[in-house]
Design a protein that fits this description.
- The complex is a heterodimer of chains A (about 325) and B (about 400).
- Chain A has about 325 residues and is α+β, with helices and mostly antiparallel strands.
- Chain A is about 50% helix and about 20% strand.
- Chain A has nine helices and seven strands.
- Chain B has about 400 residues and is α/β, with parallel strands linked by helices.
- Chain B has two domains: about 220 residues, Quinone Oxidoreductase, Chain A, domain 1 (Alpha-Beta Complex), CATH 3.90.180; about 160 residues, Rossmann fold (3-Layer(aba) Sandwich).
- In chain B, about 55% of the residues are buried.
- Classes of the chains: A alpha+beta (about 325), B alpha/beta (about 400).
- At the A-B interface, helix 8 and helix 9 of A face helix 3 of B.
Chain lengths: ~325, ~400
């Protein structure tokens, strides 16, 4: 039943920049090692034996190392900062080279210095963004739970596949609206009436077996979910396993969001699945006097006495 | 409406509370006509069942007239006379469909709490703690009945309340206790506890073909009822050594099956042994006093069956696992799956094979429920079963 761990979608979607910088590193590194003389001429240090034989190939090797990290690594944020460190070394070396050179070589060095400074600015930006994304990943909350439902995988799958059904048993959801073509709009009502909304897309959809979805780029709270349906041993219905992951932003907003997704996400999913089972098997969420809104861990702690209530039913 | 409400340990009050309403589409509301006090209600009264809240309406043995039905109840009509089984069961889950109604997987909204104590959660029960659902009970003028299309059994008007009321709990519970003994014919069955459940287990054992039934209790009036009403051989554990006497009575073998119809608040003839468990229970080092169960296990013949229908809530110690294991005993137990038995037992009542109302000793008004609990607890006036009449 277990698959690869679910990736929390990168809310900012800025994988592109580190990857581009990786390609730049690859080009620079290859040039500096493969054609140090030409590079030396281009940037105006072709008069230095040490620059051609040692410094440029060294810089090339460093760039290749960064390129590998940026292009192959799962989380490029650390490697972006190696580029920033390299930029600082290069700027210092270029400034030093400019001091004892005149004429065209000095002009070329000046131009190189300007280009490297520009690249440095881009590298710093990429570093800051990547580090933020890594922080969000570290805060990412994952939870999973499983339940057996006395219905066929086909029935259970079909109910879930209509995301508009989810708020019937996932109490943190206010609504889900299907927009067609695999897209849907999700709304969560938080404390003090604050709403968090996002659009989600279906990532994988295997009939009666599995559905996975994730928020699309730009979601305030990037999140993803996956549900699998498997026949229970001995024909005892369908085992449903749900995994949810979300990456709350840092700071106060993050704390508020965490609250609305539940203090104990694992427990919350378990509650969701208990209600899902009730809906699938009995037709609705089962209520009692002590838990008039039905199963919820919070309600289990804050039980009202087991006696009829005068007030209207809560949701 | 008026309802008997739990106020705290050993404190009850009949209070005015709102009338119940339909909360789910398969609910009914019943105007209660008779409601009994169960021995297990005394565990609540004494505060041994966790997760009670001040104001909880008690009562899980009731019957009455349907006055309101939800839109998805198609088998009942307003005005139908019904007996309501104490376990709330959906009828749709795998447990219900295997006949295991008291462990219904959907009827306990507070299953998470019960899971912490029990590992997995049983179903909901009327008026029996929040851990078992947080449902208002039936010691009230009206009661909400969830899954009314599954639980309640219709009874015709010619059968008086008292003849059928006990189908809600004690009769099926006693019957299941006997059934779990695996009686094939000719067995000797010993029953600990000659209260309502124990007496009905004795009668059921005979119905199923047992040859001899032995009743173990300490109250002479209960032992007299066991002998006169249930045809059992009485044995007073305050007067004799039970294990020795049972050995003696069965040619050294021990009874073929032993039924524990006592549960968590048992007594022991030895003041020291009773005091040991009573003290541990009162400071919550163990939740239950398993005197009857220990004795039932030690007494049972090799390869015999121990059937536990007395209510237990948590943990015990000095449990004779060595006797159980080395002597090939079988333990069978469970809260009664009442819905499994109601039709068949109603037919037996109708055919005159048994009239379970012989256990009822007292009839009171709902307003006097607290008095009924006190009498029942003190075993005053030979009290065995109190029915509240509305």
């Amino acid at each position: 039943m277990r698959g690869t761990p679910m990736e929390v979608p990168d809310g900012t979607g800025r994988r592109l920049l580190p990857r581009s910088l990786g390609l730049l590193s690859l080009g620079l590194g290859a040039a500096a090692i493969g054609a140090p003389s030409q590079v030396g001429r281009l940037i105006g240090v072709d008069d230095s034996m040490i620059a051609r034989t040692t410094v440029l190939p060294g810089i090339g090797a460093r760039e290749l190392l960064s390129a590998v990290g940026l292009l192959v690594g799962r989380h490029p944020s650390g490697w972006v900062w190696t580029r920033v460190a390299g930029d600082a070394m290069d700027l210092a070396a270029l400034a030093n080279a400019m001091r004892d050179r005149q004429g065209r070589r000095r002009q070329r060095l000046g131009a190189t210095l300007a280009v490297v400074a520009g690249i440095t600015a881009v590298d710093v930006l990429a570093g800051v963004l990547s580090t933020r994304a890594a922080g969000a990943r570290r805060r990412a909350v994952r939870a999973s739970a499983t339940v057996t439902i006395n219905r066929s995988a086909d029935e259970v799958y079909r109910f879930w596949r209509d995301f508009e059904n989810l708020p019937r048993f996932m109490y943190h959801l206010e609504s889900v609206r299907s927009d067609g073509d695999g897209r849907s709009h999700w709304t969560v009502k938080g404390p003090a009436g604050r709403r968090v909304e996002w659009d989600a897309e279906v990532v994988e959809d295997h009939l009666s077996e599995m559905i996975s979805w994730r928020s699309v780029r730009g979601a305030r709270v990037p999140n993803a979910g996956r549900v699998r349906f498997a026949r229970a041993a001995g024909g005892r219905g369908t085992e449903v396993r749900v995994e949810l992951a979300y990456a709350p932003p840092g700071g106060a907003v993050g704390r508020a969001v965490a609250k609305l997704f539940g203090e104990e996400p694992e427990q919350q999913i378990r509650d969701d699945l208990r209600r899902f089972k009730q809906v699938m098997e009995t037709g609705e969420v089962v209520r009692s006097d002590g838990s008039p809104a039905g199963t919820s861990t919070r309600q289990q702690v804050l039980q009202t006495p087991a006696r009829p209530r005068a007030a209207r039913l809560p949701r | 409406m008026k309802a008997n409400c739990w106020q705290g340990r050993e404190s009850l009050a009949v209070e005015e509370v709102p009338d119940p309403k339909i909360m789910n589409s398969r609910d009914a509301v019943v105007r209660v006509t008779s409601s009994a006090i169960c021995g297990s209600d005394l565990h609540l009264f004494h505060g041994y069942i966790p997760s009670m809240k001040k104001g909880d309406v008690l009562g899980h043995e009731f019957m009455g007239e349907v006055v309101e039905i939800g839109p998805d109840v198609h088998n009942l009509r307003i005005g139908d006379r019904v007996v309501v089984p104490f376990p709330i069961a959906c009828g749709n889950c795998a447990a219900c469909q295997s006949g295991l109604y008291s462990v219904c997987e959907n009827s306990n909204p507070n299953a998470g709490v019960a899971e912490r104590l029990f590992g997995h959660a049983p179903g909901g029960i009327y008026g029996y703690s929040h851990m078992l659902g947080g449902y208002a009970g039936g010691q009230a003028e009206y009661a909400r009945v969830p899954f009314a299309d599954i639980g309640p059994i219709k009874v015709e008007d010619d059968l008086p309340d008292e003849k059928v009321l006990l189908l809600s709990d004690v009769f099926p519970t006693g019957y299941m206790g006997a059934e779990m003994c695996g009686i094939k014919g000719g067995e000797v069955i010993a029953v600990w506890g000659a209260g309502a459940v124990g007496l009905l287990a004795m009668r059921s054992a005979y119905l199923l073909g047992a040859e001899r039934v032995i009743a173990i209790d300490r109250f002479p009036y209960r032992l007299r009822m066991a002998r006169e009403q249930a045809g059992a051989e009485p044995l007073n554990y305050e007067e004799v050594d039970v294990i020795e006497t049972l050995r003696e009575m069965t040619g050294g073998r021990g009874p073929d099956a032993c039924i524990d119809a006592v549960g968590m608040e048992g007594h022991h003839s030895s003041a020291v042994l009773h005091g040991y468990d009573r003290a541990k229970q009162s400071v919550r080092l163990e939740t239950d006093r398993p005197h009857a169960l220990r004795e039932a296990i030690m007494s049972c013949r090799n390869g015999g069956t121990v059937s536990i229908i007395g209510a237990y809530g948590g943990f015990v110690d000095k449990f004779p696992i060595g006797s159980l294991m080395n002597r090939s005993l079988t333990v069978r137990t469970g809260q009664c799956h009442v819905q499994r038995y109601t039709r068949m037992l109603l037919d037996r009542i109708r055919r005159g094979e048994i009239d379970p109302s012989f256990v009822i000793t007292h009839r009171l008004r709902l307003e006097d429920a607290p008095i009924g609990y006190e009498m029942f607890r003190q075993k005053q006036d030979d009290c065995t079963k109190v029915v509240l009449k509305l």
